[in-house]
Amino acid sequence: MMRIKSILYMKRNKISMDFDSTMSRKDVQEYATKLVNEGYEVWIVTSRCATEPALAKGWWWVEKQNQELYDVAELVGIPRERIQFTEHVDKIEFLEGKNFIFHLDDDPDELWAIIRSGDPCKPVNVEHFEWLETCKEILKKCK
Predict the structure, then answer these.
(1) Residues pairing with 43 in the sheet
(2) Confidence bin at 11 (pLDDT 50/70/90)
(3) Which of 78, 92, 107, 122 could pair covalently with 102 via S-S, beta carbons 3.0-4.6 A apart?
(4) Element containing residue 71 per DSSP (H, E)
(5) Torsion angle of the four alpha carbons 8, 89, 65, 29, in this order, in degrees rounded to the nearest 10
């Protein structure tokens, strides 16, 4: 009974961010670094293909692209275990049921898929002028 109770009252601290046109931006990198330093578990969830499967298909350019992603993750403080390549599958397929607070992305289709899923993960559009304020407000409500 004690274990079930501790899981129910566990503080949510997982945040997801897309990479291309999101985490690749300096302002998002600065915010993600701040979140990591505050103890949040920040993930990169990208529709990109992982390096090994891409190389097996002959997509040699993916290795360099993914190295850029790895370099940014290291700079921000995100370990490789917290990078999820969805291989062009909707990101909600990975996010659903994993207790993420919000997902920051520039792709409206990805954000709508999160809404339609009914998962408590909040979709946030990085292209919206108040994206940062929206993220802060969501986190404030989780405390």
Answers:
(1) 16
(2) low
(3) 122
(4) helix 61-76
(5) -40
